[in-house]
């Protein structure tokens, strides 16, 4: 009897699977940093549910999974930041300083760069989006890699009613984020562009 695989938006990377992927790639201290990031993200997002009905934390783990499995990125700081990329937006107590104390300055820098002002976004989403794009233009490419990996995961979840206006989300990504990546020769960014276009074409038909 064939076991039915869960729909994409209900898949996630377990802590055991994460460790299995990285234990031969990272030294024990680096691996512990990534595991600690996993546990903190799980705690911050534990009561959050996305519009598609899935636990929010699943998204965070899938972004890390994209980095590891598809982009072959094994940098502990970048993977930790991928797991934590939304924690500052979703926690009332975490700050960049707390992240820096626990995970180091580079992880804190990436997560802070990827954090949007959600209160301002409610009243002026266009301004927030433009400011975020400007930040990414001048930020480390690792920030853009994580942002596009998060967008790719969202593209793959659009069929499950993740976004109220999926066409607008696709257009915004195509017009604002993909061009940033296309300016770079970074192979990870080039791969993300190809995958985003593939998912866009699948959704639009």
Description:
- There is one protein chain.
- The chain is mainly alpha-helical and 205 residues long.
- The chain has one domain (8-204): Orthogonal Bundle (Hypothetical protein af1432), CATH 1.10.3210.
- Helix content is 69%, strand content 0%.
Name a few traits of the molecule.
0% strand, Hypothetical protein af1432, mainly alpha, single chain, 205 residues
Oligomer: single chain
The name of the CATH architecture is Orthogonal Bundle
> In CATH, what is the homologous superfamily?
Hypothetical protein af1432
The helix fraction, in percent, is 55-70%
The gyration radius over C-alpha positions equals 16 Å
Number of separate strands = 0
Tell me the domain tally. Answer: 1
Strand fraction: under 5%
SSE inventory with pairings:
Layout lengths: L14 H8 L5 H17 L11 H15 L5 H8 L3 H4 L5 H8 L1 H9 L4 H6 L1 H14 L2 H17 L8 H17 L4 H18 L1
Helix pairs in contact: 1-2, 2-4, 3-4, 3-10, 4-7, 6-7, 10-11, 10-12, 11-12
What can be said about this structure in brief?
The chain has helices spanning 15-22, 28-44, 56-70, 76-83, 87-90, 96-103, 105-113, 118-123, 125-138, 141-157, 166-182, 187-204. It has 205 residues and is mostly helical.
């Amino acid at each position: 009897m064939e076991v039915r695989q869960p729909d994409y938006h209900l898949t996630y990377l377990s802590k055991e699977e994460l460790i299995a992927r990285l234990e031969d790639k990272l030294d024990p201290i680096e691996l512990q940093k990534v595991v600690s990031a996993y546990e903190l993200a799980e705690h911050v997002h534990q009561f959050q549910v996305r519009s598609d009905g899935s636990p929010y934390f699943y998204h965070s783990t899938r972004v890390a999974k994209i980095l590891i499995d598809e982009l072959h990125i094994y940098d502990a700081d970048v993977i930790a930041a991928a797991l934590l990329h939304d924690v500052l937006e979703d926690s009332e107590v975490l700050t960049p300083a707390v992240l820096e104390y626990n995970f180091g300055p580079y992880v804190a820098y990436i997560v802070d760069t990827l954090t949007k002002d959600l209160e301002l976004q409610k009243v002026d989403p266009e301004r927030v989006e433009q400011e975020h794009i400007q930040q990414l233009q001048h930020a480390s490419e690792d920030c853009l890699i994580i942002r596009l990996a998060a967008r790719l995961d969202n593209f793959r979840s659009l069929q499950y009613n993740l976004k109220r206006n999926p066409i607008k989300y696709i257009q915004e990504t195509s017009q604002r984020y993909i061009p940033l990546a296309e300016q770079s020769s970074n192979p990870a960014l080039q791969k993300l562009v190809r995958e985003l276009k593939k998912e866009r074409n699948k959704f639009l038909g």
